[in-house]
Each structure stands twice: as C-alpha cells, then as structure tokens.
Write the structure tokens for this entry.
Amino acid sequence: MLDEELRLATRAALRAGEEVARLRREGVRYGRKDGWELVSEADLRAAEILHSLLTSAYPKDGWLGEEHKDTSERLDCERVWVVDPIDGTREYLQGIPEYAISVALVINGEPALGVVHNPATGELFAAECLTAFERPPTDATGYPLEALVGRGEQLHQELPPLPDGAETRGIGSVAYRLALLSTGQGNAVLTGYGRAEWDVAAGVALCRAAGLRATGIFGDHMPFNQPEPYVRGLLAAEPGLHARLAAFFQQFRRE
C-alpha cells in the first residue's frame, strides 16, 4: 500500500498549487527554455516545493521532473517520482483554467499513484494504482466518441484522423484531460504527438485506477522511467472503446 506516499504527494501538490495561484494573482514573470518553450517563475517555484517535500521524505527514490536536470541515476531506482510542476504553462499564463500540477510515483516502470491538482478550479484527483484493473469491455460501437484533446491540437487542426461522428473537446493540460477522463468526462483522451513522461504519468495512474486502459496511440505498452523519457502518442479509454480506437489508428501506423 502507498497510503503515506499518496498523502504526501497530495499535500505537496496542494502546497505547490497555493504558490502557483498566488503568483498568478500577484503577477508572474516568464521566459522561454531553449529559446522556445514557455517557462514561468511559478513553474520553478512549484518545482522547488515538490522536490523538497518529496525527496526529503523519500531520499532513496529517483526523480524525473520537467524543471530539474535529468540524470541517469534514476534508471537504477525501483521507485521514481515523475513530476510536472505546471502542465499547461501557456494556459496558466493566459489565465485559462486548464492547467495542473502533476505528481506520479512510478514503481518498476509503471505509474503506481497519481495526483493531479488544478489550482484554478480547486479540483484534486488522487489515486493509487498498485494493481491495475480494467472494466469489462463494452460494445463500443453503440455510443458516440467524445475525445478530450489538446487545445492547440484542436485549434490548429493537428488532430489525428478520427472515426466518423467523433466529437472533440479541446483542453489545455494533458494531465488535466486524463484526470477528467478518469472521473467520466468524455470517453477518450488521445494524441498522436509524443509526450514527456512527466506530462502523462500521473494521469495514466488515475485512468488505470478507474479501470480504463491507457497505452500508446496504437495500443502499445507504455513503460515509464525510460532513458529517453517520452511516450509515443497516447490513447486512454474504457477497454472496449480503446480496442476499437487502437485498431482504427493501426491503419495509419508507419514503422
């Protein structure tokens, strides 16, 4: 059981959320990493809070976070915290309430717990997923597809081809999208783009804890704590719909 870890991760996410919300109210500075990717003062402060609280309690665990320098040391760790201090920095800076703090504990390559907190709405999603289960598959042909997708992907028409009749809803943070899906909003989250592990690890844990299947876009296994910490697309849905969509996307696969 991971009761203590889940309590601490929740407390850390809420504490980081307080600081993120404060900076949003009072004014926040921002810039660009590597010349293009947005990063704000709030990202860095939240990263410090999360790192301090989690590593002081579990100093032997590995760390993989967007705002910390990655090292190969985590590859030798059975347990690794995978953290995005703000997933959806663009939405945060624009005042769109679709960003989230994302905290996951990965054990032996699988997300074992996830906490996703949206400071703008006050929503908190938390679950452990030591033994993932899946709901019995349903007949996925009997209801429409409502996919939660990236706000930018929808705006710029960069979505992968979708089955006839599919509807999409654009939401900024992929961690937030996965958290919403885990509570029954929409019936799939998908993207054809690669994502960093810290973007999706906590949300994948939440979805799997809810009995959903979460994989790569083609239905392929999605291991975490990899040397290159990226996943090849993402597909999350209840098992019946997941199987239908994975089969649909296979026709576009290029090896």
Notes: Helices lie at 3-26, 41-57, 89-94, 151-155, 174-182, 197-209, 239-250. The mean pLDDT is 91. Residues 3-128 form a domain with the Fructose-1,6-Bisphosphatase; Chain A, domain 1 fold (CATH 3.30.540.10). The first strand starts at residue 30 and ends at 33.
